[in-house]
Each structure stands twice: as C-alpha cells, then as structure tokens.
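Service request form, structural biology core

Requester: graduate student, group of Dr. S.
Request type: structure prediction, single chain
Budget code: on file
Notes: please return the result as structure tokens.

Sequence provided:
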Amino acid sequence: MNIVMKTSTKFMKPLGVLGLLVLFGMNIQAQERKLNLSGYSSVAFSTAFGDAANEQERIMHERNGGDPDIIEEGTDISYPGMNLFLNSQFSDKLTFQSEIFFEVDKDEFNVDMEQLFLKYGFSEKFNLTTGQFITPLGYLSRNQRNLDYLNYSYKIRDMINEEFGLTPFRTLGLQANGTFEAGSMAIMYWVAYGGARGTTPAGKVNETQIGNVEHSSPSLTVNLELYFPMSSGDLNIGMGIMSTPSIKSIYIDSLGKEVDILEELDPSERMDLSETIFAPYIRYDASKFQVFAEYHINTLKDELGNTGSASYEFTTLSAQILYKTKIKGKSVYPYLRYDKLNFANDNPDPYYGLIQRSGDGIIRTHAANREQIMIGAAFDLFPNNRIKLEYDLFLDGPEPQNGINIATSFAF
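Core staff response, request fulfilled:
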C-alpha cells in the first residue's frame, strides 16, 4: 500500500498561527488547553445497472480520460475514509480547529489537511478566522459538503464535489463573519479573502501567492443570509458571490491531451482566466418537512485569448424536499432530490472546469452534463448513526441510468 501525503509546509505561510496570536496579544497557558476529538465516516454498498443515460456522453467520457469506474455497471462496496476533527478552546474567545481526512483510494492511503484555522470571537457581530477553512459560498459548502452524518441524502452534490472543483472547496487566508439582529429576523454574513484557485480546479490553494504574477490571485467571497424564525419553522434565504481576478493555468486545445507542467510552456498554452460565481439558495425547515434549493452560476472570462472563446458559463442546481416522521420511536426522513449540471456553451468542454492533474501532467477531460432524480430515506436507528437508502435515476450523463446505494454514516 502506498502512502501519499497531500499536505504542504507552505499552507500557513503569511497567515499562520503565530500571526494571529501576536495580533490579539494572547498569553495562553499550556495547562488551560483541552483538545477535543471527534469525527465521522461511512461505508457504502452501491450498484449501477442499465444503459448509459446518454450514450454520446459515455463515449466522450471514455475516450478522453474520464474515470472508468463511473460508467461501468456493477456492484461496489466502498469505504471512502474518515474525517477527524481536532478542536481546542484556548479561551472564551479563541478557538483552534483542524480537520484531517484519511482517504482510502484503491491501493493508496492519502492524508489531506482539509481545514486548519484559528478563530477569534470579538462579539456576536464580528469573528475573525485565519488559516485554511471551507470556502463560505452558499449553504451546502458550509453545512453539507460531503457524505457526513448530517446529510440525509447519500450522493455528493456536483457543485461542491472537491474532485470536480466546480466551486472552490477551501480558502487559505482570512475570514470575517457575524450576525446582526434586526427585529425578529437576523442577518448573517461571511467575508473571506485568500487563495482558493490553483493550476487545476481541484488543485492546492497554496499554489496561490499574493503579489506573485505567476500564480493565481486571491479570491474574494461574500455570503449574506437572512434568517426568519417562524412559528411553523425557520426560513433561510442567502446569496454567495465569489470573484477571482486571475487564475493562472494551462490551456489544452484538445480532449484527452496531456501537458507536462514541468516543461516550459509555449505562449499559446498559457491561460489566464477571471471567474465570478453566484450562489443563491433557500431553505425552509419545519417540524414535519424541509425544502431546500441551491443554484450556482459560474462565469469564466479568457484574459489572454488563447482558448478561442471570450467567456464560458456553466450552471449547477440541487433541490430537495424531505419529510420528517418516526417509526417505532426512530426518526425517518424520506426525500426526493433533483440535481442538474449544465455546461451551456457552444463548446461543451470547458477550458477550466474538469482538467485534472496526473503526476507531472495535466489532462483535459470531457465535461459531461448530468441530470438525475434521487428517491431515498435516512434512518436514525442508533445514536450518532444514520442509515441511508437511495435509488438514483440518471436522465442525462455518462453513467448507467439506474443506481442503488445503501450506506451507513456514523459520527463519534
């Protein structure tokens, strides 16, 4: 078994732990520190069967470097890994948080530092975070980004799937957030600034360096949310906006082609993009049901003119309605979910969207449209354990039309 470490010693360079401690002048005594440990994981049984939802998408996916596992019929038992949280309350105001992901990927064991930050709470209206944290864009990225215990449905949303990189997964930098009361409602905000985009969409954020013209520029993320408590339930309405002025990457002119990033690039292979993402969402949570929808619009502009298209846009949508009930005293949550990913352009293959890193090279893969309906239920049979049953019907995409997933998620 190979062990691959995905972390880097650079990740806290300009915004490290010492910087925050100096800024706030904290004098923390070792005997006052307490480290809390928690985490979650899951095991899943999945089967896929039937013809491809879109045969042309399947052919394009197979020919151009796509993951062969997702287009094959068959049964699979998977253990994606474990997320481990380390938390320490240094004082009433200063908190340390880290999240480490131990991933089992075929014959490799990967360790990834997903979060590592310090948070200082000045007041309810203003908190400051420094380090590497989840990008606060939309609702899903902040609350239900993975297959963790809190999710009712099983599948990862495309818009927040780290491997797709459609939305920046994490930011290395600074974040301010807080809540303002306005009568019976509340206004919540998040403002983040730092590295979020690298050479590839799912690449490391430490490839972004402030002031370095050879690296992607820092991103600015703003998320505003209105919270309305009601007698019948809680209503959240929000909008996330993210802007990255410059993404330095490599333009690959044909599908399936690989470029060695260690070699000197030809001027025609250089790519400099600007990106804007809008993420409106709404969530209504009542005693008996929950309704949720989030929509992302990503717009990329070519600043060098090498890609052959002045701009490119794609959209993603996830909507879900869920019913809350009990069977013999155990909570049960049946749901209906709809997801759609649309690369809406004359050229359906983005120049930055699903290019992937492979060793010392980058491959441009086919970006497949997807549309699917999921019907399922989550069962809380035991404390800190959730069983999930789900049937997937693909209406579009390279995958087989039908899928059945049975998973158990547990937290500790």
